[in-house]
Amino acid sequence: MSRERLRKLLNEPLVQFLLIGSAIYGLLSFVGDRRPLVINEARFLESRLKMTSLLDPTGPEAERNREADSRVIVDELLYREALRRGMQVDDPVVRQHLAQKMLLITEEMHLAARRPSAMQLQEIFAEMSPSLSLPPSISFCQVYSRVGWRQTNIARVPANPKICEGGTGDAFALGTRFNSWTRAEVESRFGDRFAAAVFAAEPGARIGPVESPYGWHIVLILEKLPGKAADFASRRADVIREWERREREVARTELLKELVERYRPRPAPETDDALRAEIEVALAHIQS
Is CATH 3.10.50.40 correct for 134-225? Predict the structure, then answer.
């Protein structure tokens, strides 16, 4: 390019604007790279606290503090350089982290502005009561035979708590004594027929042989405890946690509805029709 053409080109307002903008951007980048990195005291103290739990607490405190402080400084240096290079742009990990942080902040602000009423807690407790109640349970001892029991062998099995001491029958991997097992627990280990037999018997009774998937058992019923309904006072903390879980869901739902209305997300024009339809379903689900 001749000097004359270059001179004319440089005299063009648009070219001058682009050159000046580029110069300003370059200057800002140059200055930005060298701004003092100011790290607040809380970051150092938090790091020292974490390092104390990770490293040997009996080791030299000065070494722990130096390691903790070094990590803070290195993290902040790398974080700033990553931002300068634009590494946060379209990074899926950063995107997911920020999305989760946005939800967490929204939930905490929502909870901070609310307190559950006594009526709300009682309603939740009524819904949760079946799962909070203690089911009936049974304690029993058993002796086991892989192939079955002869009548003469059954007679030698103690009809008292000595049966719990073992020594009669075959070795059984699950043990001899079982304390406070619910019907569901007995069924899961010994089967439905075994559970029905032991729960039908009264404390002190020796029953059997009772069949299980393992073989045959002589069983002594030690104790049966009735179910116990949950009371609000002892399970209040569980009810509060359930109320908080529900309120967090409310906060998330309200936030997402607001953001959909504000930003009106939609697929790009070139999106396939089938995919576009599925995306519309997802949007409707978010707003439901």
Answer: yes
